[in-house]
Amino acid sequence: ISQDNIRNFSIIAHIDHGKSTLADRLIEKTGMLTSREMQAQVLDNMDLERERGITIKLKAVRLVYESKDGEKYILNLIDTPGHVDFNYEVSRSLAACEGALLIVDSTQGVEAQTLANVYLALEEDLEIIPVINKIDLPSARTDEVKREIEDVIGIDCEDAPLISAKEGLNIEDVLEAIVNKVPAPTGDPKAPLKALIFDSYYDTYKGVICYIRVVEGTIKAGMEIKMMSTGKTFEVTEVGVNTSKHVVLDELCAGDVGFVTASIKDVKEATVGDTITDKNNPTKEPLSGYKEVVPMVYCGIYPAEGEDFNSVRDALEKLQVNDAALVFEPETSAALGFGFRCGFLGLLHMEIIQERLDREFDLNIIATAPSVIYKIIKNDGKVLEIQNPTDMPPLTEINYMEEPIVKASIMTPTDYVGAIMELCQNKRGTFLNMEYLEEKRVVMHYELPLNEVIYDFFDALKSRTRGYASLDYELKGYEPSNLVKLDILINGESVDAFSLIVHEEKAYERGRTIAERLVDVIPRHQFAIPIQAAVGSKIIARETIRALRKDVLAKCYGGDISRKKKLLEKQKEGKKRMRQIGAVEVPQEAFLTVLKYD
Ligand code: GTP
């Protein structure tokens, strides 16, 4: 099939508007798999992804479609993740396409979050095809939603396919639109190789599998390739495409989308956005848009059971093989023992890893509060970069500190502008400007400290705007800031796992919240326990857990010995999940509840 008959596209949609359902229908309609073979959803096959309703890893599927004009077309469907943490991956997978379907739920209309990805697609110059979904529902507002898309995004919806992905209605219209509207790829198959990696993951048998878009030239087995960002070279073992399974091909040419394997041992050697070229006939310039991913958020991860330390390390290593953005190194905490300091792209990425440790590896873990990287300029002129509050030097050695600032764009219906301004002000934001996208929708630009954004900004934004506002941000740089280390003392002992670096203005509020929460979760002891929040030697908040004479056996009426035994047994069980802080037993869950940012 010639280049003219290739179409590379992805699907952009707000969560729950029907992206996976439509993808399934397209796959089914083109006869790639029968519904029975198709295990529920082909594209997101990670349990966690499905449960969380998000697509974390992107993949590509090749469909073959015979169009009404009688010709056969290769349609490469490239899946994209849908969260700001993974925006870079989204932008690279869009860069592998010429077009995108924009799915809009006809009962919901355009939602703010969709816009962020639409703008990424427009930046890559993609042809955007609106598709109106869920027209089977009685509450569908098809015409209204069409008008909304035209107003908000400015694309013509006259010919937009009106479909029900669920019932398989008018799916052919979508396929025809892809064939007729998405431009065919261009690029010289004889030129030096230039291929974009838009996804890579580790496979136990084949090593790293890279998903690529060949932009120029041809790639085939046996060829020696070079990764342009690292200069590392590999010999290609296989190239091919994914239909329902891996299909090995002789070669992939300019315009093609497919996979390549080359005995690559680590995803860090084949990172998203990198350009693959021919070692012996290299292209001059790599493709634009490559970025090295750097962790923005850090936290400590500790096994709840000390003996699980090695299992946690093994699990993190396994996850890392597949996740170039995850970093970790061992660390110790006086309160939590041996664990790991881990770095993530953002909060969602962090939560996903924590959850995978729990679900896929069955590990019980305790995570400390997330932190960003601070710069400390010491009196002697030395600059320290720290992401763990316990590494902060004494105040007397510090000249000043700097914190990371992000440029944030918040898209919102005009109704919520006031609420958002209040929120951003509260989060130490600096208002830059506001643009009208259309009559009732604006994008507000702010500069915000990253540590406020990772605290509870996203949740607060969602609740204040009933989910209508969306957030996108990128690192702007570092700025001086009045930061302090907030310590939490239990019965006079500072607990390192609770320490935080916060802005001076926020110290009291955060300290008080943590102290109040601890009072709720630490059981009473035989003595009174002061819980204090301190900045340096200054106590800024204090709560007390009152003393209690607790005789567990008193509850047992009569002299039923087996009952007594049971109770003692139960108490022992509970003890296991306690952490000893000085004379105080702190339940494991305290670490979880206290550090929760909502
Ligand atoms: P994420 O994977 O979470 O981003 O969601 P998605 O956009 O892939 O949505 P998904 O395909 O999972 O569909 C979300 C829900 O809408 C599911 O319960 C679908 O069954 C339902 N749905 C999808 N298309 C239609 C449709 O045409 N009509 C109706 N009534 N329901 C639909």
TrEMBL record:
Annotated compartments: Cell membrane
GO biological process: one example: positive regulation of translation
Signal peptide span: none
Record key words, sorted: Cell membrane, Elongation factor, GTP-binding, Hydrolase, Membrane, Nucleotide-binding, Protein biosynthesis
Stored Pfam families: EFG_C, GTP_EFTU, GTP_EFTU_D2, LepA_C
Keyword Transport belongs to the record: no
GO CC list: plasma membrane
Enzyme class: hydrolase
Binding site for GTP: D16, H17, G18, K19, S20, T21, N133, K134, I135, D136
Protein name: Elongation factor 4
Gene designation per UniProt: lepA
